[in-house]
From TrEMBL:
Intracellular or extracellular location(s): Endomembrane system
Chain residues that bind UDP-alpha-D-glucose: 46
Alphabetical keyword list: Cell wall biogenesis/degradation, Glycosyltransferase, Membrane, Transferase, Transmembrane, Transmembrane helix
Organism: Dillenia turbinata
Main localization of the protein described in the UniProt heading: membrane
Lineage, uppermost ranks: Eukaryota, Viridiplantae, Streptophyta, Embryophyta, Tracheophyta
Name by which UniProt lists this protein: Cellulose synthase
Pfam families xref list: Cellulose_synt
GO MF terms, alphabetically ordered: cellulose synthase (UDP-forming) activity
Length: 569
């Protein structure tokens, strides 16, 4: 534990021959390593419980008005990012900003980004669009919070609070920001720590915008925080240990209204939703130099399990009181639609599954998806296609996403939609209806055994039941193309236009599954046995289907007489 730094800058010197610190403030911030208590019989609530323990202990030890949240696999890549995030909260009108979300940037991803780990469509497209509404969603890392907002308070009503302080001249109390919060109810909401309760108003005041302009009505004067801090004594440290004990949250509102919210796999989305639902705004901050960087799973199985965990959390949100349908009037309409999409998107897997099988069923049956292609239908189809393409082009140009990145995102959307999202809906329904809890393991970020190849994990094939639906979709479409091709060849009047039209959609499905197929093949020369078995079964099935299809007698007669050949309509 490092002691608190002095309030005056401490400039370094140029004595060091390697580094010159003559113009650098070399003060070190107070550093405290916290390990919360865990005991059998107490639910530690995973990441959300750990973050709440850190919020309480830091309130006792330092009580900084802003909190930076980073996952253990992320690090600061831009030292000025923290200051840029604070500027949004301390600028004019910043008192309504609950958190500043930074985009996630990753290292160690294969150059082709086979499984869309960069997720640029979401971070450079969707999140920037949400920034024009009530703000981006909280994605679990790379986020700077206002401590006062984490305590479950509504945004401050600046005029009311300003008039109260000017007329009475008394210090503000937590009840001034929440009329339903009485002094006697503080232990019920925040626990029985007196130091923690007293730190709430201090954190609120420290986080106010700077009153360096007459237009700032709700702020604090510059330099008011330059007050020397007393060294930590034994009693303060003992209080910090007390607030991170496993029993402290009993019969309090931690995890329900205060801090990170419990009860969901995706506690990050729920926590951000609760803040927006109380009327707070968030900001999306994209710095020229990446603010933070981290690692992501480049292995197919690990990536699918990561998406499965996210999608399961979305299903839990949909069937809980955190559904955006039940939001308050403080949540804006378009922001409500954005949160509705967060809870609904896994259910689109059923429709996506049907769309992937429709081309194959069309080829099997010999009937096109649409029986009669009228001019009216073709006009509607053309208009819809042009609108979808134009919308995609506009989104790509506006967000700056490369066309290859957009295509990778489309491919993995189909792969995850027919596997992880489908399983997530089933698991979510089991939890809601039958009460069966689903356990998840932490996402593995590096499991390759080859230390010389940084992409060794990319070629590692780890079998999972999540792979079954995409494999079945690919097999069915390949077999359907073979059956339709054989039927067309041996038909009396071959209808090649119908075959080409139906096969196009099957090939379109297979094109989306191409990264999945590459992931199954692994490294060259190291193809897993299970892939060889599946390939053999496909080859045998196609061969048997080819032999079992008997050509019509009239076609055989024409071929014998020398009159055979392809007949294009």
């Amino acid at each position: 534990m490092l002691k608190p730094p002095s309030c005056d800058p401490l400039m370094g010197g140029g004595e060091d021959k390697l580094l010159d610190f003559s113009d650098v403030d070399i003060r070190l911030p107070m550093f405290v390593y916290v390990s919360r208590e865990k005991r059998p019989g107490y639910d530690h609530n995973k990441k959300a419980g750990a973050m709440n323990a850190l919020v309480r202990s830091s309130a006792v030890l330092s009580n900084g008005p802003f909190i930076l949240n980073l996952d253990c696999d992320h690090y600061i890549f831009n030292c000025k990012a923290v200051r840029e995030g604070m500027c949004f909260m301390m600028d004019q009108g910043g008192e309504n900003v609950c958190y500043v979300q930074f985009p996630q940037r990753f290292e160690g991803i294969d150059p082709s980004d086979r499984y869309a780990n960069h997720n640029t469509v979401f971070f450079d497209g969707n999140m920037r669009a949400l920034d024009g509404l009530q703000g981006p969603v909280y994605v679990g890392t790379g986020c700077m919070f206002r401590r006062f907002a984490l305590y479950g308070f509504d945004p401050p009503v600046t005029d009311k609070i300003k008039n109260k302080t000017e007329s009475e001249g008394t210090p503000l109390q937590p009840s001034d920001f929440d009329p339903d919060l009485d002094v006697n109810l503080l232990p019920k909401r925040f626990g029985n720590s007196t130091i923690l309760a007293e730190s709430i108003i201090i954190a609120e005041y420290q986080g106010r915008p700077l009153a360096d302009h007459p237009a700032v009505k709700f702020g604090r004067p510059p330099g008011v925080l330059r007050v020397p801090r007393d060294p930590l004594d034994a009693a303060t440290v003992a209080e910090a240990v007390s607030v991170i004990s496993c029993w402290y949250e009993d019969k309090t509102e931690w995890g329900d209204r205060v801090g990170w919210i419990y009860g969901s796999v995706t506690e990050d989305v729920v926590t951000g939703y609760r803040m927006h639902n109380r009327g707070w705004h968030s900001v999306y901050c994209v710095t020229k130099r990446d603010a933070f960087r981290g690692s992501a799973p480049i292995n197919l199985t690990d990536r699918l399990h990561q998406v499965l965990r996210w999608a399961t959390g979305s299903v839990e949100i949909f069937f809980s009181r955190n559904n955006a349908f039940l939001a308050s009037s403080r949540l804006k309409l378009l922001q409500r639609l954005a949160y509705l999409n967060v809870g609904i998107y896994p259910f689109t897997s059923f429709f996506l599954l049907a769309y992937c099988f429709l081309p194959a069923l069309s080829l099997f049956s010999g009937h096109f998806i649409v029986q009669t292609l009228s001019i009216k239908f073709l006009v509607y189809l053309l208009i819809m296609t042009i609108c979808i393409i134009a919308l995609a082009i506009l989104e790509v140009k506006w967000s700056g996403v490369a066309l290859e990145e957009w295509w990778r995102n489309e491919q993995f959307w189909l792969i995850s939609g027919t596997s992880a999202h489908l399983y997530a809906v089933v698991q979510g329904l089991l939890k809601v209806i039958a009460g069966i809890e689903i356990s998840f393991t932490l996402t593995s970020k590096s499991a390759g055994e080859d230390n010389e190849d940084i992409y060794a994990d990319l070629y590692l094939v780890k079998w999972s039941s999540l792979m079954v639906p995409p494999i079945v979709i690919g097999m069915v479409n390949i077999i359907a193309i073979g059956v339709a091709f054989s039927r067309t060849i041996y038909s009396t009047v071959p209808q090649w236009s119908k075959f080409v039209g139906g096969a196009f959609f099957s090939f379109w499905v297979l094109a989306h599954l191409y990264p999945f197929a590459k992931g199954l093949m692994g490294r060259r020369g190291k193809t897993p046995t299970i892939v060889i078995v599946w390939s053999g079964l496909i080859a045998i099935t196609l061969s048997l289907l080819w032999i079992s299809i008997s050509p019509p007698e009239d076609t055989t007669a024409q071929a014998t007489a020398g009159g055979g050949g392809f007949q294009f309509p």
